[in-house]
Amino acid sequence: MIKIALDAMGGDRAPRMAVEGAAWASRELDCHIVLVGKERNIRKFLVKTDYSKEKISITHAPEVIKMADPAAVSVRRKKDSSISVGIEMLKKKTVDAFISAGNTGAVVCAAALKLKTLPGIERPGIGIVMPTLKKPCIIIDVGANIEATPRQLLQYGIMGLSYSKYILGIKDPIAGLLNIGQEESKGTELVKEARQLFEKSKLNFSGNIEARDVYRGKVDVVVCDGFIGNILLKVTESFAEATSAFLKRELTKRLLPKIGAILSLPAYRAIRKKIDYSEYGGAPLLGVDGRVIIAHGSSNAKAIKNAVRAACEYVKHKLNQHIIEDLEGLNE
Amino acid sequence: MIKIALDAMGGDRAPRMAVEGAAWASRELDCHIVLVGKERNIRKFLVKTDYSKEKISITHAPEVIKMADPAAVSVRRKKDSSISVGIEMLKKKTVDAFISAGNTGAVVCAAALKLKTLPGIERPGIGIVMPTLKKPCIIIDVGANIEATPRQLLQYGIMGLSYSKYILGIKDPIAGLLNIGQEESKGTELVKEARQLFEKSKLNFSGNIEARDVYRGKVDVVVCDGFIGNILLKVTESFAEATSAFLKRELTKRLLPKIGAILSLPAYRAIRKKIDYSEYGGAPLLGVDGRVIIAHGSSNAKAIKNAVRAACEYVKHKLNQHIIEDLEGLNE
User: What ipTM was reported for this prediction?
Assistant: First the structure.
């Protein structure tokens, strides 16, 4: 049975959401979940849930890395934190994957330090799958590495293309570099140099992609540094939230729109499902030698359950092997 | 009467949209519009419109800087382009403001070269007003200067605060630096250094603001470099477009949601109006000694008409005088 370690102490509403999400997953999915964190705390919430006893266990980790703690320092000092212990389990292969909704910087740092990066990959990157008007698209990096080099961007492209091909099942995926214009002359030095590397490579590369084309689904892989990627992701969330709040306000102002809204409810639900990150359940940390899933800090139980599902899918594919082969193919 | 020069050759559908927008403005607004560009071309479209003859005139400019032309080179070479001629008119004070939906880089470059920047301002910045869940907020810079220095970010903060106070009428506006976290330790070197400058200044500064808080209206002025700002803006547009396409698809799939959608039409219109850039009509290029409005490249006639309205409003306020005073106040 697939075995997933889940950081019970990570996320804005830890450990409750992690525990409830794990219980939910134990009822629906065919895998074993190891909750990592303060055992008494975890048990307090676990007894209140309806869970499958054979599918959940606890590994005690007495320390906690908080959301705002400095990443590198905390990983070095808190060796008994849920993040350090979980990554250690992954390293020793007692579990197949590790999920955390906790301090992203600390997870990235612990994973890079202990698991090491794949041969040919300098820095890991977080890839997130977003819906577009066409196929789903992966944006990499959305926050692992905020000051990337051109070569690291190229490596993100390779990993994103492998993910698109082997996990999302997209045939001949195309990568684009996120930029403020399509022309070669546009952009920062970083983007200009990265563009040259992409063009020299044998990758399926469409050149620069403008932000306005991201959700039009013009490419399958959007490559950017973690600073821009994180802002892109968070702005989208912020705008989605604001739009639905505006809409709610307008729809409930008068009677007819209100009735209309009730009749249209299934459509709204379908949209929400499409753009709701809790449906996607976390983003893979690509480029480390081990399967790590970063869940959203404000994950609810459903998001955690879906992250477990995503982790199970991830385990079934030999993505890292493919990435290594794709990298080697490029260097031939 | 207020006199506005309008680049007739700028934008994806030039000169038609500029001419139709000018005609519309001449019927609704109390100002004179000088269409700058190829006279025969302009006249061809103008005769097909219903416009007020006393309120529109043409200044011939035989050259055109195209959307994809390199900015600095084009401005230097094409002295008779609509952009160069329009900015020259502004410099000679034969008009009160200049509007262009053309090559943004060229407009910024021509304005900085000919009009010069205000004392104490090193680089101009484009400020765009966005709706939020609370008050409208100005984001600066969204594309004038893609590699800003910490000092330039501080100057954007000053200009943004003046705009918020004097044009948007917001009492005691607050500025925030766009970053990937609120903590001081987060972000690129640029953002960290800029944060220190903001904190040392007497400005109303709330620290870092995360992208997810932008549309929540947490601050009145969002400060960022032009690369990030441009991506933020375009991603928002792209996501808005995708969401409404998703919604349309879902709403028209079955009968009840379809009826619901029809009943809810006024609410959708209200939302579209709120997030539609053509309602806002362009973004001011702040920091140059003259009033320049950058309109969206894909502006339709309504967007141009609203840009003329925005320019008239802009002329009525002595914003640049306020910016200079606010800058001096800071240095005392």
Answer: 0.86
Domains of chain B by range and CATH? Answer: 1-121+287-317 (3.40.718.10), 122-278 (3.40.718.10)
Taking phi over 0 as left and psi of -120 to 50 as alpha, with beta for the rest, B99 belongs to beta
Burial A232-267 (b: 16+ CB within 10 A, else e): bbbbbbbbbebbbebbeebbeeeeebeebbebbeeb
- Minimal CA–CA distance to B105: which of B77, B136, B132, B75? B75
Residue B116, classified by CB atoms within 10 Å of its CB into exposed (0-12), middle (13-18) or buried (19+), is middle
CB contact under 8 A, B235 and A214: yes
> Please, what is the end-to-end C-alpha distance for chain A in angstroms?
38
- CB-CB neighbors (< 8 A) of A212 in chain B: 234-235, 237-238, 241
Contact B211 A235 (CB under 8 A): yes
pLDDT in tens, A162-189: 999 999 999 999 999 999 988 877 889 9
Instruction: Tell me if B232 and A235 make a contact (CB, 8 A cut-off).
Output: yes
CB–CB contact B239 A234 (8 Å): no
State the residue for tokens 């019927």: B27
Contact between A275 and B68 using a beta-carbon 8 Å cutoff: no
Q: What is the pLDDT of residues A41-59, one digit of tens each?
A: 999 999 999 999 999 999 9
Contacts of residue A17, Cβ cutoff 8 Å, sequence gap at least 6: A11, A101, A299, A300, A301, A303, A304
Q: Which pLDDT value is given to residue A247?
A: 78
| Residue to substitute from A234, A235, A259, interface B, most B β-carbons within 10 A | A235
* Disruptive mutation site among B188, B215, B265 for chain A (greatest number of A CBs within 10 Å): B215
The string of pLDDT tens digits covering residues B249-287 is 777 877 877 787 777 777 777 766 766 666 667 899 999
Q: Which two tokens stand for residue A180?
A: 């403020």
Contacts of B276 (CB under 8 A, 6+ apart): none
> What's the rounded Cα separation, in Å, for the pair B16 and B11?
9
ω into B141 cis (within 30 of 0): yes
How many CB contacts within 8 angstroms connect chain A with chain B? 190
The closest CB to that of B234, out of A212, A238, A271, belongs to A212
Is residue A311 scored above 90 in pLDDT?
A: yes
Q: Please state whether the predicted TM-score (pTM) of the whole model is above 0.80.
A: yes
Q: What average pLDDT does the structure give for chain B?
A: 91
Query: For residue B112, what is the DSSP state?
Result: I
Residue of A nearest to B131 (CA): A242
The partner residue sitting opposite A267, judged by closest CB among B132, B233, B247, is B247
